[in-house]
Automatic annotation (TrEMBL):
Protein's organism: Aquibaculum arenosum
Ranges of Polar residues composition bias in the record: 392-408
Motif window: Q motif: 2-30
Signal sequence segment: none
Tagged with keyword ATP-binding: yes
GO molecular function: helicase activity
Record CDD domains: DEADc, SF2_C_DEAD
Occurrences of domain DEAD-box RNA helicase Q (ranges): 2-30
Family, similarity comment: Belongs to the DEAD box helicase family.
Gene3D superfamilies given in the database record: P-loop containing nucleotide triphosphate hydrolases
Stated name of the protein: DEAD/DEAH box helicase
Residues annotated as domain Helicase C-terminal: 235-380
Record field: compositional bias (Basic and acidic residues): 367-383
InterPro entries for the chain: DEAD/DEAH_box_helicase_dom (IPR011545), DEAD/DEAH_RhlB (IPR044742), DEAD_box_RNA_helicase (IPR050079), Helicase_ATP-bd (IPR014001), Helicase_C-like (IPR001650), P-loop_NTPase (IPR027417), RNA_helicase_DEAD_Q_motif (IPR014014)
Protein backbone atom coordinates (compact mmCIF):
# COMPACT_ATOMS: atom_id res chain seq x y z
CA UNK A 1 0.00 0.00 0.00
CA UNK A 2 1.30 3.46 -0.91
CA UNK A 3 2.40 5.73 1.94
CA UNK A 4 2.98 9.48 1.88
CA UNK A 5 6.67 8.74 2.35
CA UNK A 6 6.63 7.04 -1.08
CA UNK A 7 5.47 10.17 -2.94
CA UNK A 8 8.70 12.17 -2.83
CA UNK A 9 7.37 15.03 -0.69
CA UNK A 10 9.79 17.31 1.19
CA UNK A 11 10.60 16.38 4.77
CA UNK A 12 8.80 19.40 6.34
CA UNK A 13 5.59 18.31 4.60
CA UNK A 14 5.94 14.73 5.82
CA UNK A 15 6.44 16.09 9.32
CA UNK A 16 3.23 18.12 9.04
CA UNK A 17 1.33 15.05 7.81
CA UNK A 18 2.60 13.12 10.82
CA UNK A 19 1.35 15.96 13.03
CA UNK A 20 -2.05 15.59 11.38
CA UNK A 21 -2.00 11.81 11.85
CA UNK A 22 -1.96 11.05 8.11
CA UNK A 23 0.07 8.11 6.79
CA UNK A 24 -1.85 6.64 3.84
CA UNK A 25 -2.91 8.84 0.88
CA UNK A 26 -6.34 8.58 -0.68
CA UNK A 27 -6.52 7.35 -4.29
CA UNK A 28 -6.64 10.86 -5.76
CA UNK A 29 -3.68 11.93 -3.61
CA UNK A 30 -1.61 8.92 -4.60
CA UNK A 31 -2.32 9.52 -8.29
CA UNK A 32 -2.06 13.31 -8.38
CA UNK A 33 0.79 14.28 -6.06
CA UNK A 34 3.77 12.90 -8.05
CA UNK A 35 2.64 14.46 -11.33
CA UNK A 36 1.72 17.84 -9.83
CA UNK A 37 5.00 17.94 -7.88
CA UNK A 38 6.78 17.42 -11.23
CA UNK A 39 5.01 20.46 -12.70
CA UNK A 40 2.34 18.84 -14.85
CA UNK A 41 -1.15 20.24 -15.43
CA UNK A 42 -3.91 18.18 -13.83
CA UNK A 43 -7.54 17.42 -14.61
CA UNK A 44 -9.10 15.87 -11.50
CA UNK A 45 -12.62 14.45 -11.39
CA UNK A 46 -13.41 13.79 -7.74
CA UNK A 47 -16.27 14.12 -5.33
CA UNK A 48 -16.02 16.06 -2.10
CA UNK A 49 -14.58 14.01 0.72
CA UNK A 50 -11.98 12.25 -1.45
CA UNK A 51 -9.04 14.30 -0.17
CA UNK A 52 -8.61 16.46 -3.28
CA UNK A 53 -7.51 19.55 -1.31
CA UNK A 54 -4.41 17.74 -0.08
CA UNK A 55 -3.97 16.33 -3.60
CA UNK A 56 -3.11 19.83 -4.84
CA UNK A 57 -1.97 21.63 -1.67
CA UNK A 58 0.81 19.17 -0.80
CA UNK A 59 2.56 19.08 -4.20
CA UNK A 60 2.21 22.85 -4.69
CA UNK A 61 3.78 23.50 -1.30
CA UNK A 62 6.50 21.02 -2.25
CA UNK A 63 7.19 22.95 -5.46
CA UNK A 64 7.35 26.30 -3.65
CA UNK A 65 9.76 24.82 -1.11
CA UNK A 66 12.00 23.31 -3.78
CA UNK A 67 12.00 26.38 -6.03
CA UNK A 68 12.68 28.91 -3.28
CA UNK A 69 12.15 32.62 -3.91
CA UNK A 70 9.69 35.14 -2.52
CA UNK A 71 6.50 36.71 -3.89
CA UNK A 72 6.58 40.22 -5.29
CA UNK A 73 4.67 43.04 -3.62
CA UNK A 74 0.92 42.91 -4.21
CA UNK A 75 1.21 39.50 -5.85
CA UNK A 76 0.99 35.76 -5.22
CA UNK A 77 2.76 32.70 -6.57
CA UNK A 78 -0.08 30.19 -6.15
CA UNK A 79 -3.68 31.26 -6.85
CA UNK A 80 -6.59 29.02 -5.86
CA UNK A 81 -10.11 29.98 -6.99
CA UNK A 82 -13.00 28.67 -4.91
CA UNK A 83 -16.76 29.21 -5.39
CA UNK A 84 -17.68 29.96 -1.74
CA UNK A 85 -16.33 31.66 1.35
CA UNK A 86 -16.50 28.55 3.49
CA UNK A 87 -14.62 26.42 1.00
CA UNK A 88 -12.03 29.17 0.48
CA UNK A 89 -11.40 29.35 4.23
CA UNK A 90 -11.16 25.57 4.44
CA UNK A 91 -8.59 25.41 1.62
CA UNK A 92 -6.49 28.15 3.21
CA UNK A 93 -6.58 26.27 6.55
CA UNK A 94 -5.30 23.16 4.75
CA UNK A 95 -2.39 25.07 3.21
CA UNK A 96 -1.48 26.45 6.62
CA UNK A 97 -1.68 23.05 8.30
CA UNK A 98 0.41 21.24 5.68
CA UNK A 99 2.90 24.10 5.40
CA UNK A 100 3.35 24.74 9.12
CA UNK A 101 7.05 23.78 8.96
CA UNK A 102 7.74 25.86 5.86
CA UNK A 103 8.54 29.58 5.70
CA UNK A 104 5.66 30.33 3.32
CA UNK A 105 2.84 32.84 3.61
CA UNK A 106 -0.82 32.42 2.69
CA UNK A 107 -4.01 34.47 2.69
CA UNK A 108 -7.70 34.11 1.85
CA UNK A 109 -9.93 36.81 0.36
CA UNK A 110 -13.66 36.77 -0.24
CA UNK A 111 -16.64 39.12 -0.27
CA UNK A 112 -18.93 39.96 2.61
CA UNK A 113 -16.14 41.43 4.75
CA UNK A 114 -14.25 44.78 4.55
CA UNK A 115 -11.77 44.88 1.70
CA UNK A 116 -9.23 47.24 3.31
CA UNK A 117 -7.81 44.61 5.64
CA UNK A 118 -7.35 42.27 2.70
CA UNK A 119 -5.56 45.02 0.77
CA UNK A 120 -3.13 45.49 3.67
CA UNK A 121 -2.52 41.73 3.86
CA UNK A 122 -1.49 41.67 0.20
CA UNK A 123 0.84 44.68 0.39
CA UNK A 124 4.00 42.58 0.75
CA UNK A 125 2.74 39.70 -1.39
CA UNK A 126 1.89 36.13 -0.34
CA UNK A 127 3.04 32.74 -1.56
CA UNK A 128 -0.48 31.22 -1.62
CA UNK A 129 -3.70 33.15 -2.18
CA UNK A 130 -7.12 31.48 -1.97
CA UNK A 131 -9.92 33.65 -3.34
CA UNK A 132 -13.49 33.79 -4.56
CA UNK A 133 -13.85 35.28 -8.06
CA UNK A 134 -15.82 38.41 -7.16
CA UNK A 135 -13.51 39.72 -4.46
CA UNK A 136 -10.44 38.78 -6.49
CA UNK A 137 -11.62 40.97 -9.36
CA UNK A 138 -12.38 43.77 -6.90
CA UNK A 139 -8.77 43.64 -5.70
CA UNK A 140 -7.25 43.56 -9.17
CA UNK A 141 -9.61 46.32 -10.27
CA UNK A 142 -8.31 48.52 -7.44
CA UNK A 143 -4.73 47.56 -8.33
CA UNK A 144 -4.24 46.08 -4.89
CA UNK A 145 -3.26 42.76 -6.50
CA UNK A 146 -1.17 41.90 -9.54
CA UNK A 147 -1.66 38.43 -11.03
CA UNK A 148 1.21 38.51 -13.50
CA UNK A 149 3.46 36.68 -11.03
CA UNK A 150 1.21 33.63 -10.61
CA UNK A 151 3.18 30.44 -11.24
CA UNK A 152 0.52 27.88 -10.30
CA UNK A 153 -3.25 28.24 -10.77
CA UNK A 154 -5.93 26.01 -9.22
CA UNK A 155 -9.60 26.08 -10.21
CA UNK A 156 -11.52 24.10 -7.60
CA UNK A 157 -15.17 22.96 -7.75
CA UNK A 158 -15.42 24.04 -11.40
CA UNK A 159 -18.93 22.65 -11.85
CA UNK A 160 -20.19 24.71 -8.94
CA UNK A 161 -18.53 27.76 -10.49
CA UNK A 162 -20.58 27.12 -13.63
CA UNK A 163 -23.84 26.74 -11.69
CA UNK A 164 -23.19 29.99 -9.81
CA UNK A 165 -22.54 31.97 -12.99
CA UNK A 166 -18.82 32.45 -12.44
CA UNK A 167 -17.65 31.42 -15.91
CA UNK A 168 -17.21 34.98 -17.20
CA UNK A 169 -15.36 36.16 -14.05
CA UNK A 170 -13.09 33.11 -14.34
CA UNK A 171 -12.23 34.11 -17.89
CA UNK A 172 -11.50 37.64 -16.67
CA UNK A 173 -9.13 36.25 -14.04
CA UNK A 174 -7.39 33.91 -16.49
CA UNK A 175 -6.82 36.82 -18.89
CA UNK A 176 -4.70 38.50 -16.19
CA UNK A 177 -2.51 35.45 -15.56
CA UNK A 178 0.84 34.87 -17.28
CA UNK A 179 0.78 32.51 -20.26
CA UNK A 180 3.36 30.17 -18.75
CA UNK A 181 1.97 28.62 -15.58
CA UNK A 182 0.89 25.29 -14.12
CA UNK A 183 -2.88 24.69 -14.12
CA UNK A 184 -4.87 22.34 -11.88
CA UNK A 185 -8.57 21.82 -12.59
CA UNK A 186 -10.95 19.98 -10.25
CA UNK A 187 -14.61 19.16 -10.67
CA UNK A 188 -16.95 16.60 -9.13
CA UNK A 189 -18.92 16.32 -12.37
CA UNK A 190 -17.90 16.92 -15.97
CA UNK A 191 -20.77 18.39 -18.06
CA UNK A 192 -20.00 19.71 -21.52
CA UNK A 193 -19.37 23.33 -20.52
CA UNK A 194 -16.89 22.25 -17.84
CA UNK A 195 -15.04 19.95 -20.24
CA UNK A 196 -14.77 22.84 -22.70
CA UNK A 197 -13.33 25.16 -20.05
CA UNK A 198 -10.84 22.50 -18.99
CA UNK A 199 -9.72 22.12 -22.59
CA UNK A 200 -9.04 25.84 -22.80
CA UNK A 201 -6.99 25.99 -19.60
CA UNK A 202 -4.98 22.77 -19.55
CA UNK A 203 -1.99 21.62 -21.60
CA UNK A 204 -1.37 17.87 -21.86
CA UNK A 205 -2.86 17.32 -18.40
CA UNK A 206 -2.50 14.34 -16.13
CA UNK A 207 -6.03 12.95 -15.84
CA UNK A 208 -7.19 11.58 -12.49
CA UNK A 209 -10.74 10.31 -11.97
CA UNK A 210 -11.17 8.49 -8.70
CA UNK A 211 -14.89 7.84 -9.22
CA UNK A 212 -17.05 7.57 -12.35
CA UNK A 213 -18.30 10.94 -13.57
CA UNK A 214 -21.47 11.99 -11.69
CA UNK A 215 -21.40 8.90 -9.47
CA UNK A 216 -22.59 9.10 -5.88
CA UNK A 217 -20.66 8.00 -2.84
CA UNK A 218 -20.72 4.22 -2.57
CA UNK A 219 -21.11 4.23 1.21
CA UNK A 220 -24.21 6.45 1.12
CA UNK A 221 -27.55 4.69 1.49
CA UNK A 222 -30.10 6.58 -0.60
CA UNK A 223 -33.89 6.65 -0.50
CA UNK A 224 -36.72 8.91 -1.67
CA UNK A 225 -39.99 9.56 0.12
CA UNK A 226 -42.87 10.64 -2.15
CA UNK A 227 -44.87 13.10 -0.10
CA UNK A 228 -47.53 15.78 -0.46
CA UNK A 229 -45.83 19.16 -0.18
CA UNK A 230 -47.89 20.28 2.81
CA UNK A 231 -46.71 17.22 4.75
CA UNK A 232 -42.99 17.87 4.40
CA UNK A 233 -42.63 19.68 7.72
CA UNK A 234 -44.15 16.91 9.80
CA UNK A 235 -42.30 14.25 7.83
CA UNK A 236 -38.93 15.93 8.49
CA UNK A 237 -39.49 15.94 12.24
CA UNK A 238 -40.66 12.33 12.08
CA UNK A 239 -37.65 11.22 10.07
CA UNK A 240 -35.12 12.94 12.33
CA UNK A 241 -36.73 11.48 15.43
CA UNK A 242 -36.69 8.02 13.85
CA UNK A 243 -33.27 7.67 12.21
CA UNK A 244 -31.11 8.19 15.28
CA UNK A 245 -28.81 10.74 13.66
CA UNK A 246 -25.64 12.15 15.15
CA UNK A 247 -25.34 15.16 12.85
CA UNK A 248 -27.86 15.94 10.11
CA UNK A 249 -27.54 18.36 7.20
CA UNK A 250 -30.84 19.54 5.70
CA UNK A 251 -30.96 21.14 2.25
CA UNK A 252 -33.43 23.84 1.25
CA UNK A 253 -33.71 25.38 -2.20
CA UNK A 254 -34.14 28.93 -0.84
CA UNK A 255 -32.71 31.11 1.91
CA UNK A 256 -36.16 31.93 3.29
CA UNK A 257 -36.99 28.24 3.27
CA UNK A 258 -33.81 27.38 5.20
CA UNK A 259 -34.70 29.86 7.95
CA UNK A 260 -38.26 28.56 8.15
CA UNK A 261 -37.18 24.92 8.33
CA UNK A 262 -34.74 25.73 11.15
CA UNK A 263 -37.44 27.58 13.10
CA UNK A 264 -39.93 24.76 12.62
CA UNK A 265 -37.47 22.10 13.77
CA UNK A 266 -36.55 24.13 16.84
CA UNK A 267 -40.22 24.56 17.76
CA UNK A 268 -40.67 20.80 17.27
CA UNK A 269 -37.96 20.07 19.83
CA UNK A 270 -35.02 19.60 17.44
CA UNK A 271 -32.78 22.68 17.81
CA UNK A 272 -31.42 23.69 14.39
CA UNK A 273 -29.49 26.54 12.80
CA UNK A 274 -29.53 27.84 9.22
CA UNK A 275 -26.64 28.90 7.01
CA UNK A 276 -27.05 30.76 3.71
CA UNK A 277 -25.89 33.76 1.72
CA UNK A 278 -27.95 36.34 3.64
CA UNK A 279 -26.08 35.54 6.85
CA UNK A 280 -23.05 37.65 7.70
CA UNK A 281 -19.66 35.99 7.48
CA UNK A 282 -19.37 36.03 11.26
CA UNK A 283 -22.76 34.32 11.64
CA UNK A 284 -21.83 31.68 9.08
CA UNK A 285 -18.52 30.92 10.77
CA UNK A 286 -20.08 30.70 14.24
CA UNK A 287 -22.90 28.45 13.03
CA UNK A 288 -20.53 26.17 11.13
CA UNK A 289 -18.19 26.02 14.12
CA UNK A 290 -21.04 25.00 16.43
CA UNK A 291 -22.08 22.29 13.96
CA UNK A 292 -18.51 21.00 13.61
CA UNK A 293 -18.11 20.86 17.40
CA UNK A 294 -21.43 19.08 17.92
CA UNK A 295 -23.10 21.92 19.84
CA UNK A 296 -25.62 22.10 16.96
CA UNK A 297 -26.69 18.72 15.59
CA UNK A 298 -28.99 19.89 12.79
CA UNK A 299 -27.84 22.38 10.16
CA UNK A 300 -30.12 23.68 7.40
CA UNK A 301 -28.29 25.00 4.35
CA UNK A 302 -28.71 26.14 0.77
CA UNK A 303 -26.52 24.70 -1.98
CA UNK A 304 -24.21 27.70 -2.22
CA UNK A 305 -23.55 27.95 1.51
CA UNK A 306 -23.07 24.19 1.81
CA UNK A 307 -19.90 24.22 -0.29
CA UNK A 308 -17.05 24.03 2.16
CA UNK A 309 -19.02 22.24 4.88
CA UNK A 310 -16.29 19.66 5.39
CA UNK A 311 -17.46 18.14 8.66
CA UNK A 312 -16.72 14.59 9.68
CA UNK A 313 -19.53 12.71 11.39
CA UNK A 314 -22.49 13.92 9.30
CA UNK A 315 -24.59 10.79 9.48
CA UNK A 316 -27.61 12.00 7.49
CA UNK A 317 -28.32 14.34 4.61
CA UNK A 318 -31.96 15.23 4.01
CA UNK A 319 -33.03 16.90 0.77
CA UNK A 320 -36.09 18.77 2.01
CA UNK A 321 -36.25 20.27 -1.48
CA UNK A 322 -34.81 18.35 -4.41
CA UNK A 323 -32.29 20.45 -6.36
CA UNK A 324 -33.30 21.71 -9.79
CA UNK A 325 -29.70 21.17 -10.95
CA UNK A 326 -29.16 17.38 -10.84
CA UNK A 327 -25.39 17.65 -10.29
CA UNK A 328 -26.12 19.39 -6.98
CA UNK A 329 -27.59 16.12 -5.69
CA UNK A 330 -24.18 14.47 -6.01
CA UNK A 331 -22.55 17.28 -4.04
CA UNK A 332 -25.24 17.28 -1.37
CA UNK A 333 -25.11 13.62 -0.47
CA UNK A 334 -21.31 13.73 -0.62
CA UNK A 335 -21.42 15.63 2.68
CA UNK A 336 -22.07 12.36 4.48
CA UNK A 337 -20.08 9.10 4.38
CA UNK A 338 -16.82 11.01 4.57
CA UNK A 339 -13.47 9.62 5.70
CA UNK A 340 -14.64 6.03 5.15
CA UNK A 341 -17.78 6.28 7.29
CA UNK A 342 -21.28 5.23 6.27
CA UNK A 343 -24.10 7.69 5.74
CA UNK A 344 -27.72 7.99 4.68
CA UNK A 345 -29.33 10.39 2.21
CA UNK A 346 -33.09 10.89 2.39
CA UNK A 347 -34.91 12.98 -0.21
CA UNK A 348 -38.45 14.34 -0.09
CA UNK A 349 -40.21 14.57 -3.45
CA UNK A 350 -43.58 16.15 -4.07
CA UNK A 351 -45.51 16.18 -7.34
CA UNK A 352 -43.78 19.29 -8.66
CA UNK A 353 -40.34 17.79 -8.08
CA UNK A 354 -40.84 14.53 -9.97
CA UNK A 355 -39.05 15.93 -13.03
CA UNK A 356 -36.07 16.79 -10.83
CA UNK A 357 -35.99 13.24 -9.47
CA UNK A 358 -35.98 11.79 -12.99
CA UNK A 359 -33.08 14.06 -13.97
CA UNK A 360 -31.11 13.00 -10.87
CA UNK A 361 -31.65 9.29 -11.52
CA UNK A 362 -30.61 9.76 -15.14
CA UNK A 363 -27.43 11.54 -14.06
CA UNK A 364 -26.36 8.98 -11.46
CA UNK A 365 -27.52 6.11 -13.66
CA UNK A 366 -29.52 4.37 -10.98
CA UNK A 367 -33.05 4.32 -9.61
CA UNK A 368 -33.29 5.49 -6.02
CA UNK A 369 -35.50 3.29 -3.80
CA UNK A 370 -38.72 5.12 -2.98
CA UNK A 371 -41.47 5.04 -0.37
CA UNK A 372 -44.91 6.48 -1.09
CA UNK A 373 -46.32 8.60 1.74
CA UNK A 374 -48.74 10.65 -0.34
CA UNK A 375 -52.35 11.11 0.68
CA UNK A 376 -53.60 11.83 -2.85
CA UNK A 377 -53.97 15.59 -2.35
CA UNK A 378 -51.66 16.57 -5.20
CA UNK A 379 -51.46 15.66 -8.89
CA UNK A 380 -49.54 12.50 -9.67
CA UNK A 381 -47.09 14.16 -12.01
CA UNK A 382 -46.46 17.62 -13.38
CA UNK A 383 -45.44 17.41 -17.07
CA UNK A 384 -42.11 18.94 -17.88
CA UNK A 385 -42.06 21.54 -20.67
CA UNK A 386 -40.10 20.62 -23.76
CA UNK A 387 -36.70 22.28 -23.91
CA UNK A 388 -34.48 22.78 -26.90
CA UNK A 389 -31.04 21.19 -26.87
CA UNK A 390 -29.50 22.72 -29.93
CA UNK A 391 -27.62 25.62 -28.33
CA UNK A 392 -24.88 23.63 -26.64
CA UNK A 393 -25.83 24.93 -23.21
CA UNK A 394 -26.57 22.76 -20.23
CA UNK A 395 -30.27 22.25 -19.66
CA UNK A 396 -32.00 22.73 -16.33
CA UNK A 397 -35.32 21.46 -15.12
CA UNK A 398 -38.21 23.91 -14.66
CA UNK A 399 -38.42 25.54 -11.27
CA UNK A 400 -41.44 24.63 -9.15
CA UNK A 401 -43.43 27.08 -7.11
CA UNK A 402 -42.14 27.08 -3.54
CA UNK A 403 -45.58 26.40 -2.09
CA UNK A 404 -44.90 22.88 -0.86
CA UNK A 405 -44.77 23.84 2.79
CA UNK A 406 -47.17 26.73 2.86
CA UNK A 407 -44.50 29.39 2.22
CA UNK A 408 -46.50 30.92 -0.67
CA UNK A 409 -49.89 31.01 0.92
CA UNK A 410 -51.49 32.53 -2.17
CA UNK A 411 -50.79 29.46 -4.31
CA UNK A 412 -53.77 27.28 -5.15
CA UNK A 413 -53.50 23.56 -4.53
CA UNK A 414 -53.52 21.47 -7.66
CA UNK A 415 -52.25 24.29 -9.88
CA UNK A 416 -48.49 24.25 -9.55
CA UNK A 417 -46.52 26.85 -11.37
CA UNK A 418 -43.23 26.37 -13.15
CA UNK A 419 -40.74 28.37 -15.13
CA UNK A 420 -37.23 27.66 -16.27
CA UNK A 421 -34.63 28.28 -13.58
CA UNK A 422 -32.08 30.77 -14.76
CA UNK A 423 -29.71 33.42 -13.51
CA UNK A 424 -29.68 36.99 -14.74
CA UNK A 425 -26.38 38.83 -14.89
CA UNK A 426 -26.33 42.55 -15.46
CA UNK A 427 -23.41 44.88 -15.25
CA UNK A 428 -23.30 48.29 -13.62
CA UNK A 429 -22.19 50.10 -16.72
CA UNK A 430 -18.48 49.80 -15.95
CA UNK A 431 -17.81 46.30 -17.18
CA UNK A 432 -19.09 42.77 -17.43
CA UNK A 433 -21.73 41.60 -15.02
CA UNK A 434 -20.45 39.77 -11.95
CA UNK A 435 -22.45 37.10 -10.13
CA UNK A 436 -23.37 37.27 -6.50
CA UNK A 437 -20.12 36.68 -4.67
CA UNK A 438 -19.87 33.20 -3.15
CA UNK A 439 -22.91 33.11 -0.99
CA UNK A 440 -25.72 34.61 -3.01
CA UNK A 441 -25.14 38.17 -1.73
CA UNK A 442 -24.52 40.84 -4.35
CA UNK A 443 -21.09 42.45 -4.32
CA UNK A 444 -21.68 46.11 -5.05
CA UNK A 445 -18.10 47.12 -5.88
CA UNK A 446 -15.50 46.31 -8.49
CA UNK A 447 -16.57 45.21 -11.94
CA UNK A 448 -20.30 44.73 -11.40
CA UNK A 449 -22.72 42.39 -9.77
CA UNK A 450 -25.43 39.86 -10.44
CA UNK A 451 -28.98 40.62 -9.49
CA UNK A 452 -30.53 37.31 -8.67
CA UNK A 453 -33.81 36.67 -10.43
CA UNK A 454 -34.64 34.04 -7.86
CA UNK A 455 -33.68 34.18 -4.23
CA UNK A 456 -31.81 30.91 -4.20
CA UNK A 457 -29.07 30.25 -1.59
Amino acid sequence: MTQFTDLGLAEPLLRALTDEGYTTPTPIQAQAIPGVAAGRDLLGVAQTGTGKTAAFALPLLHRLHEMGGRPKRKSCRVLVLSPTRELASQIRDSFRAYGRHLSLTSAVVFGGVPINRQIRTLQNGVDVLVATPGRLLDLTGQRALDLTGVEMFVLDEADQMLDMGFIQPIRQVVAQLPKRRQNLFFSATMPGDIAKLAGELLTDPLRVAVTPVASTAERVSQRVILVDGVDKRGLLTEVLNDVGFDRALIFSRTKHGADKIARNLTSDGLPAEAIHGNKSQGQRERTLGAFRQGRVRVLVATDIAARGIDVDGITHVVNYDLPNVPESYVHRIGRTARAGADGEAISFCNAEERAYLKDIEKLIRQQIPSEDRRRGNEPEFMPRPKQGRGNGKSQRSPRPANNDSGWNKGSRAGKPRSRPAQANSRGNGRGAGKPADDGGRPDMGGVGFMRERRRAG
